[in-house]
Write a structure and sequence with these properties.
Layout (H helix, E strand, L loop, with lengths): L1 H23 L8 H20 L4 H14 L3 H14 L7 H13 L15 H8 L3 E2 L21 H9 L17 E3 L5 E10 L10 E12 L2 E8 L8 E6 L5 E6 L9 E6 L10 E2 L10 E7 L3 E6 L9 E6 L9 E2 L10 E7 L4 E6 L7 E6 L29
Keywords: Signal
Pfam families: PD40 (PF07676)
Organism: Cellulophaga geojensis KL-A
């Protein structure tokens, strides 16, 4: 009952607040009291509906202002733009919103300090421009279940610094300071690939909520400095591409994506890298690798050995790490790496260090946070082209997903 009363009181407060705000704007109101009451109720209902969907006040004021502006309901648009101005930093709108606010006020007969002369402006294009992709700030952590966890790349501190300055990489560190966002560097050290979360809101459908998706970026090593950071369009705008890994010859880029055509939530894809740096069409690795659930964290080692994490194959529980041989035109059978590496929890993002025979895997099998788990796979330097390089058990658990090529 208390919650109900509080909710009712909040609605009354919002209604009263909106009425006073409308009056303060000196906008043209209807002479009929009934019409005014209906309009205020409609605004409150719109606000409540969007608030219940998880929108922030700022997003609500932006959307309701733009929606009414585009259908030429300038009085209502001015109302919401005023609300947006009140919650904006220093009580100031950005240039685009301020321009529409002044135009709306002029349309309803309210004089402003600046005249709005943009009668013939393409307002739809202006609104669409405001809804372009925005990058996630460095101090914001991606909270998805399967985040951008990987190992801290050695010898790439300059890359880390430059990409952070460009607002692309963020440091994600657990209590052991074991890992950061993944960076895949080509064997010649000239090119790096990494993925980053961005918020995307479609230009059409103003009331569609922004969603976090991941994009892959490329950086070039120019005279020892990482520059020319650009997005690689491997997936459609509103779909994710993440966890990039590049082959030793620099000719293939593997990554995870939820783009149309996947067999499940996230599938693993491969795209060829041409001599001029362009990319071929991404190809799904098929159902010998991908499942109806999540297939993530690809890691290509040497020529064709691809390690990846999946919770769709028959495993020990949660995400398990698998290995599969991926040729230019043929994919082998995915093999579970066994209980020395996998557990009944999430195990993912494998790192093998051939110099000391150590391997590491990210896992949440411990208490609470994701942590790095170490294991040894051999006491001698070995190639990674066979399963024995990472698994000394006499039996290996193969996945039950065996399909024709």
């Amino acid at each position: 009952m208390k919650n109900f009363i509080t909710h009712k009181a909040a609605i009354v407060c919002i209604s009263t607040f909106f009425c006073y705000s409308l009056s303060a704007q000196n906008t043209v109101a209807s002479n009929a009291s009934k019409t005014t009451t209906v309009e205020v109720k409609k605004r409150v209902d719109n606000y409540k509906k969007l608030k219940s969907l998880g929108y922030t006040d700022k997003e609500i004021y932006e959307d309701l202002g733009n929606a009414n502006f585009l259908v030429k309901k300038y009085e209502t648009a001015a109302f919401w733009y005023k609300k947006l101005k009140d919650v904006s930093k220093d009580k100031m709108l950005n240039k685009s919103y301020q321009e529409r606010y002044q135009f709306a006020l002029k349309k309803v007969g309210v004089s402003t300090t600046k005249d709005a002369h943009n009668t013939n402006k393409d307002w739809m294009a202006a609104v669409a421009n405001d809804y372009k992709t925005t990058k996630q700030k460095n101090n914001t952590t991606y909270t998805g279940k399967y985040g951008e966890y990987s190992f801290n790349p050695k010898g790439n501190s300059s890359l880390e610094t430059v990409t952070q300055q460009n607002n692309y990489l963020e440091e994600i560190t657990d209590k052991h300071n074991a890992y950061k966002t993944p960076v895949a560097v080509t064997a010649d050290g000239k090119t790096a690939y990494f993925s980053k979360g961005v918020y995307v809101k479609p230009a059409t459908g103003i009331f569609s909520k922004k969603e976090l998706v991941h994009k892959i970026y490329r950086a070039e090593n120019v005279n020892g400095q990482w520059k020319n950071v650009k997005e690689i369009a491997l997936a459609p705008k509103n779909y994710s591409a993440m966890h990039p890994t590049v082959s030793a010859d620099g000719k293939r880029l593997f990554f995870a994506s939820n783009m149309p055509g996947t067999f499940g939530k996230f599938d693993i894809y491969v795209a060829s890298i041409k001599a001029n740096g362009d990319f071929g069409v991404a190809k799904n690795l098929g159902q010998k690798v991908n499942t109806e659930k999540n297939d993530l964290y690809p890691k290509i080692v040497n020529g064709n050995s691809l390690f990846f994490a999946s919770n769709g194959h028959k495993g020990y529980g949660g995400l398990d790490i698998y290995m599969v041989e991926v040729g230019q035109r043929k994919v082998g059978i995915a093999a579970n790496l066994g209980s020395r590496i996998n557990s009944d929890k999430d195990d993912f993002s494998l790192d093998l260090q051939s110099k000391n025979g150590m391997g590491y895997v990210m896992s949440n099998r411990g208490q609470g946070n994701v942590e790095r788990v170490a294991f040894t796979y051999t006491n001698k330097n070995r190639d990674f082209n066979s399963l024995e390089a990472v698994n000394d058990e006499s039996s290996i658990n193969y996945s039950t997903s065996v399909f024709e090529d």
